[in-house]
Amino acid sequence: FNTHHYSDREFKKILNHLGKGNFFQKAETLRDRFRLERDDGPSDYVQFFDSHDAAANQWQVTHQVSQEGSYKNRYDVTILANGLPVTHIELKRRGLEMKEAFNQINRYQRHSFAANDGLYQYTQLFVISNGVNTKYYSNNGGANSFKQTNYWADEQNRIVPELADFAKAFLTPEHLTRMIGRYIV
Question: Engineering a disulfide at 54: which of 13, 93, 151, 173 sits with its beta carbon 3.0 to 4.6 angstroms away?
């Protein structure tokens, strides 16, 4: 993303910077730049997310990532921007209540999001779905309430509950960049 190669020592400095702060400070770090003292002398600025140009970000989708904190957890789907997890998707079988997915994300936040440099604390959006109903909500650092979850609606204000339709409308790089860069604290 930054088109630079970093030495192990420089990369440790970046990870150290990313590991600092509470959830809100990390949200600010995601949108800010970090002044890195390079090993060869001159300093350089490291950017973590481009809030204005979705195509400038490097997007990846992972599934079944395991992380061990106080318990070992396996996350269903994670969308990463420039290597940082920015959207977490928790999926349940059809017929199950979405609140189960919501509660599972809350457990992940308590048990393992802070593990391994705490990079999962950079997650800005959560999506929960049972295939038939899909909702999203912003990460507020672990004090989430199911009442804060929202259905997505199209231009005619019709709710988009089906996972496949939601994904086509909501989970595009352009839309995620707008949501994360402009609307999420």
Answer: 173
Distance CA 131, CA 161 (A): 8
Supply the pLDDT for residue 68: 66
d(CA 151, CA 155): 13
Structure tokens at 81: 């921007």
The pLDDT tens digits for 38-49 are 898 888 899 999
Tracing tokens 């630079």 back to the chain, one arrives at 4
Token duo for residue 152: 């997505």
Say what angle helices 23-31 and 8-18 make with each other, to 10 degrees. Answer: 130
Q: What are phi and psi of 112, to 5 degrees?
A: -145, -10
> Collapsing DSSP states into helix, strand and coil, what is residue 21?
coil
- From the first residue on, what is the mean pLDDT of each consecutive set of 10 residues in the chain (185 residues)? 83 89 83 90 89 92 76 83 92 91 85 69 90 92 84 94 96 94 74
Q: Name the nearest CA neighbour of 13 among 45, 57, 51, 60.
A: 45
Amino acid at 71: Y
Alpha carbon separation from 46 to 41, 132, 153, 162, 168 (Å, rounded): 15, 41, 36, 38, 31
Please state, in angstroms and rounded to a whole number, the distance separating the CA atoms of residues 38 and 19: 19
Q: Is 109 helix (H, G, I), strand (E, B) or coil?
A: helix
Mean per-residue pLDDT over the chain, rounded: 87
